[in-house]
Amino acid sequence: MIQIPKDLLDHHSHIRLRLSDMYGIIIDKKRPFRCDDTLQTAHCLEVILTGAIDVRYGSYVQHLAAGDIQFRRRGNYQLFPSDDYTSLLIFMENEFVDYFLESHVPEFKQEKLCADLPPFTFKTSEFIKANVAQVMQHILQPQNYSRCIVKFAAHQVLLQILSGDQSKTFASFLKDLVSNKKVDLAYFMETNFNRQLSIADMAKLTGRSVSAFKKEFTDRFNTTPVKWQFNRRLEYAEYQLKHSNDPVSLVAYSSGFENISHFSKVYKQKFGASPKSARNELVS
Question: What is the pLDDT of residues 15-74, one digit of tens each?
């Protein structure tokens, strides 16, 4: 599993925008990435420059080629790029989307949308291509005001998308995105207990502040998120050892443990036997 944008920052040219948790990242062919389990922790506006990429979201699969633009809300995706794939990614938080809507779409009749819409895909234009070229130049060779220019370019691209969306579905989607809907904690934790997420990540992905997330979690589960996650990982590992033929190392990794020795130690502390012993008992 990779987490984006965090896991892309060390390998690709990027710029972080001031006063908002936004990134502009250029994916180049020299440093390809491929992952069938991707956690996207911020909303993403992607412009495909060359090659192609298949994006799987739940039961939806979308094929994007050069010239396509996609807006993806934060969430879990499977990404399969071609060998010649390159793209521009702009990651943004609700605050930026909300500011954009207040500035350019202050009032309109919002449509009622399906709860689980796939990512929105559009075609580029000459105007958007000019903005993308400008953004890339300022990411690769930052100058004075480069962060502001990239931010305003993101505005321009979103405006172009809105102007071509006669149905107003995309505007309704953006409005729905920033409506401060909270994700159910039990559902989120069961879905993500084996992922390497910090408390700040969990809070952001469930639509809460860190303090609100901790308090609501403790009130509901009578324990801390870290303790709950730790015990859930061990319970999952015990089940996998009893009901699968996967090697102990694979069981550990799939349960969320990154260190086999640590996994064996804490497993024995909780269940009174090492993972290997538990597996051998079942075999015998």
Answer: 998 656 789 999 987 766 667 678 888 899 999 999 999 999 878 899 999 999 999 988
CB 39 within 8 A of CB 53: no
Instruction: Please answer whether residues 79 and 53 qualify as being in contact, where contact means their C-beta atoms are separated by less than 8 angstroms.
Output: yes
Residue range 182-284, CATH number: 1.10.10.60
For residue 97, the tally of other CB atoms under 10 A from its CB is 18
Q: Could you tell me the pTM of the whole model?
A: 0.76
Number of Cβ within 10 Å of residue 143's Cβ equals 9
C-alpha to C-alpha distance for 184 and 48, rounded to whole angstroms:
33
Asked whether the CA dihedral 248, 227, 6, 154 is positive or negative, the reply is positive
Pick the CATH number of 2-177 from 3.40.630.30, 2.60.120.280, 2.130.10.10, 1.10.287.90: 2.60.120.280
Q: Is the pLDDT of residue 133 over 60?
A: yes
CB-based contacts of 52, cutoff 8 Å, min separation 6: 63, 64, 65, 66, 81, 82, 85
Distance CA 169, CA 190 (A): 31
